[in-house]
Amino acid sequence: MTGRERAMSNSRELKLRAKSVMRERLKALILTALVFVLVNTLISVLTGELTGYAAWGRELSHRLDAAMANSQQLLESGDPSALIDSIEIPDARDFYRGVFPMLLALLLNLMTVPLSAGYTYHTLCESRHRPTKVSSIFYGFQMVWKTVALSLLQGLVTFVGFVLFIVPGVIFIYRYSMSLYILLDDPTKGVVQCMRESGVLMRGNKWRLFKLQFSFFWWLLLASIITDLIGLDILSLWLTPYMYLARGAFYNELLGMAAVGPGDETFWN
């Protein structure tokens, strides 16, 4: 009997599988999530500061705030001509001065793509009851060019879909959502092949994945509220692996993977 011939699990059942792994590996999963978040944040902050893009953005922001404050004062003075005279045409050099830092920052931020791929790999292994080390979150750097190429190609296809019409863009997001998992399972496959195979796996399953993701809405809202209240995104250290594990369980079921125990080899029905 194939995976498609069996009754597919609903969101609640997939999340129960994720919770089961969480109970077994809670400390390790939270530690890995912490390292993942810290490294991701470090890359983003450093790229902004080292390239000068962050400083350029802050300078423009301060100038804009000062201009708005000045405009408000002139409006209150009741002299329209003074307001018109105060308007400054932005110097093109201000813009071009930030283009290179912006492009360099975007390029360096692409390093978060293999990092995210590595975290996906880590949680995928955990969802299969194959405990792994924290260092596995860097696994994506072993195939850095493929992960980046896959991310860029998916982004391009999705962007075209949104330009043509919003609905195709959403469909493309879910159609190719399993591409990275397929690449992680077999790094010898090409980027286009992974996307094609994802399209096959997701036939008739896009709505299921949407419902699974939407089922975390209240958790995400709660995490956002807690972050606003205390200034720390603490809940995400638990919520992030929970969501990834549920998604990994979804992928495993699409493949028709049988349940395996720690140390066992996987096999396919």
Q: What is the topology?
A:
Layout: H1 11-51, H2 53-77, H3 80-86, H4 92-109, H5 112-127, H6 144-164, H7 166-175, H8 179-185, H9 191-201, H10 206-214, H11 217-230, H12 236-255
Helix pairs in contact: 1-4, 1-5, 1-10, 1-12, 2-3, 5-12, 6-7, 8-9
Outline of the structure:
The chain has about 270 residues and is mainly alpha-helical. Helices cover about 75% and strands about 0% of the residues.
Task: Describe this entry's structure for a reader.
- This protein has 269 residues and is mainly alpha-helical.
- The chain folds into two domains: 11-47 and 111-255, no CATH class; 54-102.
- It is built from twelve helices and no strands.
- It has helices spanning 11-51, 53-77, 80-86, 92-109, 112-127, 144-164, 166-175, 179-185, 191-201, 206-214, 217-230, 236-255.
Helicity level: over 70%
Mean pLDDT across the residues is 80
Q: Main sheet, how many strands, which sense, barrel?
A: none
Strand content: under 5%
**How would you describe the shape?**
globular
Helices and strands, in order, run as: HHHHHHHHHHHH
Q: Give the number of domains.
A: 2
Count all strands and give the number: 0
The end-to-end distance, rounded to whole angstroms, is 7 Å
> Radius of gyration in whole Å, from Cα?
23 Å
Number of DSSP helical runs: 12
